[in-house]
Amino acid sequence: MSTDLGREMHALVERLYPLCRSITGDGVRSTLDIVGELIPLTVHEVPTGTQVFDWTVPREWNIRDAYIADSSGARVVDFRASNLHVVGYSTPVDTTMTLDELRPHLHTLPEQPDLIPYRTSYYEPDWGFCLAQSTLDSLPDGRYRVVIDSTLADGHLTYAEHVVPGRVADEVLVSCHVCHPSLANDNLAGVAVASALARRLAGANPRYTYRFLFIPGTIGSITWLARNHERVGRIRHGLVLACAGDPGSLTYKRSRRGDAEIDRVVAHVLAASGRPHRIVDFSPYGYDERQFCSPGFNLGVGCLTRTPYAGYPEYHTSADTPDFVTPEAMADTLETVWEVVGVLEGNRHYVNLSPYGEPQLGKRGLYESLGGRSDTKQAQLAMLWVLNLSDGDHSLLDIAERSGLPFAAVAAAADALHDADLLKE
Amino acid sequence: MSTDLGREMHALVERLYPLCRSITGDGVRSTLDIVGELIPLTVHEVPTGTQVFDWTVPREWNIRDAYIADSSGARVVDFRASNLHVVGYSTPVDTTMTLDELRPHLHTLPEQPDLIPYRTSYYEPDWGFCLAQSTLDSLPDGRYRVVIDSTLADGHLTYAEHVVPGRVADEVLVSCHVCHPSLANDNLAGVAVASALARRLAGANPRYTYRFLFIPGTIGSITWLARNHERVGRIRHGLVLACAGDPGSLTYKRSRRGDAEIDRVVAHVLAASGRPHRIVDFSPYGYDERQFCSPGFNLGVGCLTRTPYAGYPEYHTSADTPDFVTPEAMADTLETVWEVVGVLEGNRHYVNLSPYGEPQLGKRGLYESLGGRSDTKQAQLAMLWVLNLSDGDHSLLDIAERSGLPFAAVAAAADALHDADLLKE
Amino acid sequence: MSTDLGREMHALVERLYPLCRSITGDGVRSTLDIVGELIPLTVHEVPTGTQVFDWTVPREWNIRDAYIADSSGARVVDFRASNLHVVGYSTPVDTTMTLDELRPHLHTLPEQPDLIPYRTSYYEPDWGFCLAQSTLDSLPDGRYRVVIDSTLADGHLTYAEHVVPGRVADEVLVSCHVCHPSLANDNLAGVAVASALARRLAGANPRYTYRFLFIPGTIGSITWLARNHERVGRIRHGLVLACAGDPGSLTYKRSRRGDAEIDRVVAHVLAASGRPHRIVDFSPYGYDERQFCSPGFNLGVGCLTRTPYAGYPEYHTSADTPDFVTPEAMADTLETVWEVVGVLEGNRHYVNLSPYGEPQLGKRGLYESLGGRSDTKQAQLAMLWVLNLSDGDHSLLDIAERSGLPFAAVAAAADALHDADLLKE
């Protein structure tokens, strides 16, 4: 993996960072426009009021400006400095009130007094500002001008798809959320890794069809699932990508099934990498795996992050800047996902066509002729393992796991044996 | 759990302690009379000679007096001082013999020289005395008067049932043995805890029907099973209560099945308690779980004790007095059983009626409206877990175990979701 | 196990050691002649060219002499000193060449410079010499006479069977390879243990039929399987015996199934022995278990060795002499196999004929009459376990494993209960 790719991904994060995204609105559209410069996107606009399972597509939110100004007219809290200052989906406001009247609308992080928190109120009409505790502490009593120049009106929910066609209709889903404003690790890094993966797959002529979703969290995945209910059956494996760029090590959260092929593949790749990593069980809290793994779908979709949700102090604060994510970390995430793709692509069930005793590999040039040595090579061991376990019940991943051999060695052995007509798929 | 209850249970132990119980006879009847003052009992009298599976109800044994007197007429071993002095089911004796002739009939504990052992000979006609090794050592050679004023004659085997009717016919069995003479922990403490549980259930309008058995060990449970063969199919769960009052921590012995619901429920309650405890596998030695778990029945019946069978030096000796059992320990046993009952009562299988993606909890007032925070509350997590796993295959206990949440939180979440028409049973 | 038996086995190893065995030829025949003096053998001769599954029986190889002589005519490498000096299946040679021309045909162990390696080239026509690195280092440049007086011609593959008839047609297979030249642990020790086991079984009137194979490795087992394809279904259990005499502790390699009865029985015997031992998972590399456990057969055949394949520095070198194997080690291997046979023979599934509650053992004289004691004897516990678990699903081995009691105690309890008409098979 070149560091060039890491730098390209980081440049995308920096470019997307200033936009004020939410679950609807022009911030999402601008984000998809930029991603669309890298990979072709099909953008969907779903009207406000559309019923999607138990939910209704909400009104579209857009914001132009917002501030709190003191009696001198100076902005003490200014949306133009950070879009985190406004609670997402804030209703319009233009009024004057005392600091005490304002306080119920102010959100701070007393334990991280210099950081601005990230807050939203999508489904309960409300308005508010987020600010550093230290800023709040510095505000004198008195009256303040409070302005939120937003609109909350019928419009659309916007999401995009990108498909890399495969040789089979079975799909691998890669999903990332695009609804967070100026937060780099959560989730512009995920968007960048997904985009880079899509570009890399474009030239790979994959077996599976790969479907990338760039969607707002929760309502976006529910909307996609509702509009693609019949397509869901094609999804064989999936990954939600989030928090993909911080310097921490990788964490994989298993699907609800716990032993889905994606769960085993990611665990195999992470273990084989020798790098520190964590694998955690599914829980119905986190990112859109919650929806893909709801009991009506129960898809084999896990979630790959670096430091997971709420696990780093910068999480959901103004400290989650492009400086917090690194080209190296994003390149590492991408490389891991690429290895996962490689195992998914190569994992087959074969049947040994010569199952009674071992076939004579030597006469096919597949075995060293000089017997008696004790240093049998990995390639030969891999062939023996593939022959021994290829009874239709064991996948190549099963064989790699049971033998302790690298998946690539097992897959290469299977290729050689298949070429020698000793295996059929 | 009030200490009042503990003191009441201890008072019952003290009142029952002096009675000379055995597997038949008036000591059992007197015991049941006293328990019957607390909870209504149906007393069964099964005639001697009744065939109960492979066994035959034995003759009834009663005893009025017994002693060994020296040449001066002084009682050196006296039934009136402790009913443990006589081997249970001893045949009548009235004779004079030398100490050496008497020795084969004398039982001591050489390693606990000041304690009287507890011995019986129910099915092999015999007689004998139990005494402290120190007493035996002090006896001079010479002739002794040996008297056992007992009768062993056709009569009845006596046991009692108490039923707390439930909303369903499925039953929870609570069984305790009432055949031991002056031994407090084994098993007057079990009798006291069972009686207190029955009283507590009386006002609880439980789902299950609770059947309490006060029976002599082995022959009593075999008799009950033989007379209730058709009813056995109704027993869904059960506990044998024994050694319920010593100061040691709780031990649960699993049913023969090992993973019966009762096994998982007790393990969950004990683990959630944070108290030291032990869980041991089934073995076909111990109390009446041996019979309930015989292969023809294989019921989900475990055994709850504090320090188990033969695990304390006072076991089956004159040191197992009311002073050995404490109100606090019995209250703790009762409280644990009460929590087990709570989980059994509340453990259901639900089906999520909105299984495609998560339902929108916010519009039902079940979810906090302000997004972005990382400190989601237990109640909300519990709802997400219940929704995610309520596919008909997972019980609330399964959900509690998988989520690591307390059963009570999971059950409360299920109640809230059921009230919101998001679950059906 | 008498040390006499150990000494007898060691004497057999010493007698067989000088013979030059290979996968075919007169060395195998002479070996089988000698074994045949101890146990009756059926010797099979399979013609060259016979198709056996994917393989073809190769030409027969015989060798009379071989050497490398220096310009003075002195033999610097001499087959008469060690038959390991010639690469097995070497084609005939009679020529003169320089040392440099000869080098590609010379095999040494640079890291064990004083040992002669063992090498073969069965299926790729070739010739070569094996020698100590120190010998090679001492050879001056110059021309050498190189002679291998061998024949490689149509003939036969030779193997032998010995059958101990049992009361049932189900078979236990015991297989050992007879194709290695002067290597004592690999596998004359295996041959010696197998022969001693066969003699011991002769007088034992076993339940199972025991089939012993003395076969060349790989091609021998494949040939036997091909010629006995229909008989294979009778094989219930099997052991490959190899490396059976070195001073290391025992290692058992599980069958491909991993939980076949033989796997559990050997594990039970080794654990109960209290001796150090290792149990390793199946891998498709090793001895003839590779063939018996090929996916088309997947037999319950494991491999018992002391120090396993390639695990000792003497492996496949001239240091694997009769001095390397000990009478005590072979006796220990034999004793272990004998215990395995004992468990296999005794392992049954019984059904408790009195499954409702416990049967009354006392009236049948199977239970102590004096109740109240806490030191119940192993024999009585074993009866309770057998009664409790004899539901048709649990074997006596299952019961021994679950109870933690020795298999022999469980089997004795089952015998007693069977005699009392409380069990049926």
CATH class group of the largest domain in chain A: Alpha Beta
Runs of chain A in which pLDDT lies below 50 for 5 or more consecutive residues are none
Task: Write down how many β-strands of chain A occur, each being a DSSP E stretch of 2 or more residues.
Answer: 19
What structural class do helix, strand and pairing data of chain A support?
Answer: alpha/beta
CATH-scheme architecture of the largest domain in chain A = 3-Layer(aba) Sandwich
> Which geometry of chain A do the CA atoms define?
elongated
CATH fourth-tier homologous superfamily of the largest domain in chain A:
Zn peptidases
CATH topology of the largest domain in chain A: Aminopeptidase
Oligomer: homotrimer
Major interchain interface with per-chain residue totals: A-B, 38 and 27 residues
Content of β-strand of chain A:
15-25%
Q: Order the strands across the largest sheet of chain A as they lie in space.
A: 1-10-12-11-13-16-14-15
- Please give the share of residues in helix of chain A: 25-40%
What would you report as the Rg of chain A, rounded to the nearest angstrom?
26 Å
Taking the sheet with the most strands of chain A, its summary is: 8 strands, mixed
Task: Explain the overall architecture.
The structure is a homotrimer of 425-residue chains. The first copy, chain A, folds into three domains: 2-58 and 156-346, Zn peptidases (Aminopeptidase, 3-Layer(aba) Sandwich); 61-153, 3-Layer(bba) Sandwich (Glucose Oxidase, domain 1); 349-424, Winged helix-like DNA-binding domain superfamily/Winged helix DNA-binding domain (Arc Repressor Mutant, subunit A), CATH 1.10.10.10. In chain A, 31% of the residues lie in helices and 23% in strands. Chain A has twelve helices and 19 strands. An eight-stranded mixed beta sheet of chain A has the order 1-10-12-11-13-16-14-15, with helices on both faces. In chain A, strands 5-4-9-6 form a four-stranded antiparallel beta sheet. In chain A, α5 packs across α9 (327-346) and α7 crosses α9. The longest helix of chain A has 20 residues, at 327-346. Chain A starts with a helix and ends with a strand. The A-B interface holds A 52-55, 87-88, 117-124, 126, 218, 221-222, 225-226, 229, 256, 281, 283-285, 290-291, 293-298, 309-310, 315-316 and B 352, 354-360, 362-363, 369-374, 376, 381, 384-385, 387-391, 402-403.
